[in-house]
Amino acid sequence: MNRPTLTLYSDLEAVYRPERVWAEGRAIALVLAHFLSGAGAGAWLLGLVLDLRLALVLGLVAVVLGGIVHLGFLGHPERAWKMMMRPQSSWISRGLWSMIVFVPTAALYVAGAYGAWGTSSAFAIVMLVLSLLGMAGIFLYKGFVYAVSRAVPLWNSPLLPVSYIAIGVRGGAALAFVGLAFAFPDSGSHSAQTWWLAATAATIFLFLLELAMGRSDSTISRSLAVLNHGSLAWVFFIGVVLLGVVIPSALVIASYPAAIGVAGLLVAGITSLVGDLAYKYCMNTAGTYVPLVPARAR
Amino acid sequence: MRYGMVLDLRRCISCYACQVACKSENATPPGVLYAWAYRVEQGEYPNARQVYIPMLCNHCDEPSCVGVCPTGATYKRPEDGIVLIDSDKCVGCRACMTACPYHARYYLDQIRNYYPGQGLTPYEEAGYERHNAGTVEKCNFCVERLERGEEPACVANCPAVARIFGDLDDPDSEVSMLVRTDAGYQLLPELGNDPSVYYLPAERPVKESR
User: Are A12 and B106 inside 8 Å of each other by CB?
Assistant: First the structure.
């Protein structure tokens, strides 16, 4: 009955109040949901571009799982349908609509791709176009859900939605690695690896650009201090940097001159996915509210 | 009409009567404070002092919590500008909490009692009927009191008359005049929410008492 509340009394007097509601407790479900749906949308895109049916299936499954996991975060999951009511102003509402469009159309397109009615019929093409629209919405909404929050400067950046698209593509490429490892272990193609490298480079560039743009903001500096040498440092450096970037980059780059085999692809894919999940957790948890009273008045 | 509140930081004596009156009026569970005080240290020794800034929902004219709500549970009443939550529509996504720069909102994950192991008191049993677990809550300017023609509980119970409530759209109302004549200011105006809660600075010339 009486377990600790999310509102800590110490927060009431903190100059830099940490954002907790999307970072602690059941919020891990929100982080996982955003990670899964982003990687799923990326896998759908790469599955189409690389003509890799298994990636399409993995992408669809990831988006569906993301939606289900998201319900675990809500206080009233049985009312989730009500989140469709405000697409004119709410990015959460737009995200839900995107999933509603994506899941059935993607499922029907996959059914066609596996032989039910092919992929070149008019029906399949309509499903493809609708699934692409849904995918675009899924790519976009997550970043904007955070970016519209003017109260949390770390999130309130026009670069964040772009960055979350890049991470989604990266996650999709990592899911494609897993699919390739099982479906085409001896494939000589490096297309998925190239996409992964490009998306990773874009993600790192956008993150560094965000740092450069926000370094004069005291609240963003506070958030970055939490990542750099605060409570999140080990998650950031081990999860994001080592597992998410260093290990998969080494494996992916090594795959160009020499085959890295099933195990190499699997390790690259899984470590990259773990890194993406850690990054989203770090971004949620490092969020800090803008101080109520400006520094000059303190 | 646009209801608003003026908080006079020179008159505030940091007695927390507003906080207690609010908890009593709204029967809020532990950890939920619609009205609270933000304590700020100003200056440096030997000229340091503490200033208490009473906080509540700012009932913004451009509320960022309304736009991000995916269900329409959070809305602004057009007739008086009060920002309210329909708990039957709230799904508990907490987007409004991340959007609110004034920390005015609380997520009630479950109903807790004040006396662990002893169950709910009769007061809690009666008061908690208006709270719904799994939803977000906040100050509503004591809308039920307003409809009875009474002031919000925090205003009525402030012993120092540091809280003044009224219509900001009426240029002759006390709140409008205080904002105009006593250098009333909003918190975080740069965020563009246009709060309906104004503060009168602690450091200003003393005029005849109200």
Answer: no
